[in-house]
Design a protein that fits this description.
globular; mainly alpha; 7 helices; about 65% helix
Length: about 200
């Protein structure tokens, strides 16, 4: 079953929280280095590139490894009960497809946002404002696309993927057994006191 937009937005917010936590760790480490007296003179473009290499790239690679790996889900998707699969076959997503998906989903909007902020700070002009507008439009289009075309985002469509729901508590995705589990939960794995009455 295709995931509903609310589930996907919640999963994305959880993942963004993890990303911001990682960004905070990187910032604290760089702050500690600066306080220790090590000069870091990169300029605005250098800091922008540095943050891309230390925050966006590692997070994009981590999300790729998680979605194409054993659990087929990012931390947010895992907590909400979602998995990424190929569309329409339902097969597992490979590493390459997952990387492209995460670059489009996370890398592109984050990079556009960073470059827009850099442009507005260094040379406030109409071009910089246009860049900032584009940086806002891309994620807005992603969110809006969740509510169109059966819940597929633009990056799902471009990469041939879909996000499915899985039975609550399932660590590994199996679309066939998950759809059966939604209709008839497996009582044999539940303790007797929690088994649903038949």
């Amino acid at each position: 079953m295709t995931a509903n937009p609310r589930q996907r937005i919640l999963a994305a917010l959880i993942d963004v929280g993890w990303m911001l936590a990682w960004a905070a760790v990187v910032t604290l480490v760089l702050g500690a280095v600066a306080l220790a007296g090590v000069p870091i003179r990169l300029g605005p473009f250098g800091y922008n590139l540095f943050s891309m290499l230390l925050v966006v790239l590692p997070v994009t690679v981590a999300l790729t490894l998680l979605e194409a790996g054993r659990y087929e889900a990012t931390p947010g998707k895992h907590l909400v009960g979602l998995r990424v699969r190929r569309d329409p076959s339902g097969e597992r997503v490979g590493w390459g497809r997952s990387l492209v998906r995460n670059l489009l989903k996370l890398g592109l909007p984050w990079a556009l946002g960073q470059f827009a902020v850099l442009a507005v700070i260094t040379s406030p002009a109409p071009d910089a404002a246009l860049g900032a507008l584009i940086a806002l439009v891309v994620p807005a289009v992603y969110v809006a696309s969740l509510f169109l075309d059966g819940g597929h985002t633009v990056y799902d469509w471009l990469t041939g993927t879909t996000v499915i729901t899985v039975a609550a508590g399932r660590r590994f995705a199996d679309p066939e057994s998950d759809s059966a589990a939604e209709d008839d939960p497996p009582t044999e794995s539940w303790p007797a006191e929690f088994s649903p009455s038949v």
